[in-house]
């Protein structure tokens, strides 16, 4: 920190005209200096600088002190700006550390991660074991200079190599286990490295210290990407990949480009787009959006062009809108992702797409229009159900009003009707923006009360025990009984997710595929899917899944349960204690997904049967053919089937 008296001394000594004059061509007019505004690239002399005051642009409204100018123009933090202005003014500015009793207890963990990062780098470049990783980087056209810029490394397949290296350095094994570098899952198990045969991406906090790693598997297996576990120095919901290196560029551009993965970020930076970050392999969270809001309020989402990529785009946009961001999205050509596109087209290809990025709400409306969702009443109702959460998410009242008007125009309904819908608790669907509550609302809105979907709980207090356990206070007695058919399948997925978080990516991918399959016919492959958690119809399991996607399945229990009610916390704790029930995780996931797909097919058949009496003869033939095709699909799944339909 810099003492206030030093900041005041620098401000008083600074020649604001000279400092700003290095970046703007100024001309004296009376008692002030004027020139073209550097913030909106103006050409007229609308930018005014007062020698003993600040600056103001009378067109775009930018104004501030000499420190503000340096921060925005050069992309510096406040402390960096004070030091910069102090140097220009002949004043040496030194930070004063806050008093701390004794050394920082996190220092050994930072030091350990830095040591391990250096070890991984040597393994990549200087050992025969790193040959496969070097070949993989070459296949993805990543140069050594770029790899070294990001500190990439390689975690060898050898179970004992890292352990022996740390032992030789005198690192206590207990410290390496506490840091998650080595793992000791059960008593009697051999201690082994968390990362093996993986290309390693060091994850840095804003100050430049290595706090975690992300590893990309080189051979066959799951999960493809693995992050460090949560620790005293790492919470993936509060860290963004490349933010430390990108923060000055983000301030300078007053915009951040958000991509999904490590390679996407690396590729854009290598091409010259420096203001880019990526979340830690999971959905963008509130903590990460809050972190970004310190640097800018303008975000551009650059995700994959496929269905899951679009779904991730819209989920991230709602989180950002809730934090007051203006959110735009880049649409890549079909089949492209940021890595492949920039590798082929370079900065010349991606820069115009970023500049022409579309407002996220306009993009949603565009997709729905192209897919024909506004052409009939059934689809129009569903289209509005997909637009309303984004309108609610927008914390800026002007943005929310603009979105409301756009949705009313697209749907061809009165704005007042949509406004009433926006503020209504329609079928219990109002949310507070927390992921668990959004999931409950999404599930609750699908079924009427008493439809066997958990509706019998909906009129009860959130902290009340389930029926039959009225005497139980905060902790419920007896096992949780899902009111939803195939609830056991949902329970199986959540048990695997919470006891073996390494399967999070696979479970999210499989449920994402099912969400896309459940879109109404005519939605098109490019339409976005339901809100997160909607495929899980039990409200408790849906809330737990949404919390896992938001915080990470391996998040600290206190963080994980922050948005859950008492019943959900009870089920969460129960499932986490049932690790022994998971014998074969991959098979359990496959069996559960087969059951859920069978349920999905049942629902689609029921919907087709409901409109069969309203169809004419030609339409009936088409509908019956679809029903019989779905019948065959369910037969192939090997789950209980119904009879085919005949005329």
Automatic annotation (TrEMBL):
User: Where would I find the Toprim domain in this sequence?
Assistant: 254-335
**Enzyme Commission number:** 2.7.7.101
From the UniProt entry, list the residue stretches annotated as the region Disordered.
Answer: 429-482
Q: GO: which molecular function terms?
A: DNA binding; DNA-directed RNA polymerase activity; zinc ion binding
Give GO cellular component annotations, separated by semicolons. cytoplasm; DNA-directed RNA polymerase complex; primosome complex
* UniProt cross-references to InterPro entries, sorted A to Z: DNA_primase_core_N_sf, DNA_primase_DnaB-bd, DNA_primase_DnaG, DNA_primase_Znf_CHC2, DnaG_bac, DNAG_N, DnaG_primase, TOPRIM_DnaG_bac
Superkingdom field: Bacteria
Query: Catalytic activity, per the record?
Result: ssDNA + n NTP = ssDNA/pppN(pN)n-1 hybrid + (n-1) diphosphate
Q: Mind listing the UniProt keywords for this protein, alphabetically?
A: DNA replication, DNA-binding, DNA-directed RNA polymerase, Magnesium, Metal-binding, Nucleotidyltransferase, Primosome, Transcription, Transferase, Zinc, Zinc-finger
Q: What class of enzyme is it?
A: transferase
The biological process GO terms on file are: DNA replication, synthesis of primer
Q: Entry's HAMAP family?
A: DNA_primase_DnaG (MF_00974)
User: What family is this protein classified in?
Assistant: Belongs to the DnaG primase family.
PANTHER family the UniProt entry points to: DNA PRIMASE
| Purpose of the protein | RNA polymerase that catalyzes the synthesis of short RNA molecules used as primers for DNA polymerase during DNA replication.
The annotated subunit structure for this chain is: Monomer. Interacts with DnaB.
Query: Mind telling me what this protein is named?
Result: DNA primase
- What taxonomic lineage is listed for the species of origin? Bacteria, Pseudomonadati, Gemmatimonadota, Gemmatimonadia, Gemmatimonadales
Q: Which gene encodes it?
A: dnaG
């Amino acid at each position: 920190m810099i003492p206030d008296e030093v900041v005041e001394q620098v401000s008083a000594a600074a020649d604001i005209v000279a400092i700003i004059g290095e970046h703007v061509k100024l001309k004296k007019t009376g008692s002030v200096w004027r020139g073209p505004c550097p913030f909106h690239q103006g050409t007229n002399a609308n930018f005014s600088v007062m020698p003993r005051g600040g600056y103001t642009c009378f067109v775009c409204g930018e104004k501030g002190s000499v420190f503000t100018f340096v921060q925005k123009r050069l992309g510096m933090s406040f402390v960096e700006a004070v030091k910069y202005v102090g140097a220009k003014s002949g004043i040496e500015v030194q930070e004063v550390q806050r008093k701390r009793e004794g050394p920082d207890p996190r220092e050994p963990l930072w030091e350990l991660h830095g040591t391990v990062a250096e070890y991984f780098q040597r393994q990549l470049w200087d050992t025969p074991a790193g040959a496969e990783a070097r070949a993989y980087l070459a296949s993805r056209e990543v140069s050594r200079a770029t790899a070294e810029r990001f500190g990439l490394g390689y975690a060898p397949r050898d179970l004992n190599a890292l352990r022996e290296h740390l032992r030789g350095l005198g690192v206590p094994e207990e410290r390496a286990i506490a840091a998650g570098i080595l793992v000791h899952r059960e008593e009697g198990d051999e201690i082994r490295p968390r990362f093996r045969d993986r290309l390693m991406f060091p994850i840095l906090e804003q100050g430049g210290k290595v706090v975690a790693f992300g590893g990309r598997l080189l051979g066959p297996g799951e999960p493809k990407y693995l992050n460090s576990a949560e620790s005293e120095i790492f919470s993936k919901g509060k860290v963004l990949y490349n933010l430390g290196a990108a923060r000055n560029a983000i301030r300078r551009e007053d915009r951040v480009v958000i991509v999904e993965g490590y390679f996407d970020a690396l590729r854009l930076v290598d091409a010259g787009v420096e203001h880019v970050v990526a979340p830690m392999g999971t959905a963008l969270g509130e903590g990460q959006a809050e972190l970004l809001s310190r640097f800018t309020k303008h975000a551009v989402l650059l995700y994959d062009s496929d269905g899951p990529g679009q779904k991730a785009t819209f989920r991230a946009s709602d989180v950002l809108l809730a934090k007051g961001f203006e959110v735009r999205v880049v649409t890549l050509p079909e089949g492209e992702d940021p890595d492949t596109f920039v590798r082929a087209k370079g900065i010349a290809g991606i820069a115009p797409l970023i500049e022409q990025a579309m407002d996220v709400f306009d993009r949603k409306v565009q997709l729905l229009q192209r897919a024909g969702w506004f052409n009939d009443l059934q689809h129009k109702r569903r289209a509005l159900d997909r637009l309303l959460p984004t309108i609610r998410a927008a914390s800026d009242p002007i943005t929310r009003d603009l979105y409301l008007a756009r949705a009313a125009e697209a749907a061809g309904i009165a704005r007042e009707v949509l406004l009433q819908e926006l503020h209504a608790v329609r079928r219990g669907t109002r949310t507070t923006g927390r992921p668990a509550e959004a999931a409950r609302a999404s599930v609750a809105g699908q079924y009427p009360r008493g439809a066997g979907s958990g509706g019998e709980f909906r009129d009860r207090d959130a902290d009340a025990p389930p029926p039959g356990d009225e005497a139980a206070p905060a902790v419920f007695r007896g096992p949780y009984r899902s009111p939803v058919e195939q609830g056991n399948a949902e329970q199986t997925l959540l048990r695997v997710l919470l006891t073996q978080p390494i399967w999070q990516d696979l479970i999210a991918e499989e449920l994402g595929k099912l969400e896309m399959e459940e879109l109404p016919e005519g939605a098109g492959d490019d339409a976005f899917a339901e809100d997160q958690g909607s495929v899980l119809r039990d409200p408790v399991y849906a809330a737990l899944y949404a919390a896992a996607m938001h915080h990470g399945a391996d998040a600290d229990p206190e963080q994980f349960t922050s948005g859950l009610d008492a019943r959900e916390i009870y089920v969460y704790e129960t499932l986490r204690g049932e690790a022994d029930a998971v014998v074969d995780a991959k098979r359990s996931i496959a069996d559960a997904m087969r059951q859920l797909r069978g349920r999905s097919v049942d629902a689609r058949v029921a919907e087709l049967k409901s409109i069969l009496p309203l169809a004419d003869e030609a339409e009936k033939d088409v509908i019956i053919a679809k029903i019989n095709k779905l019948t065959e699909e369910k037969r192939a799944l090997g789950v209980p089937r119904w009879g085919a339909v005949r005329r």
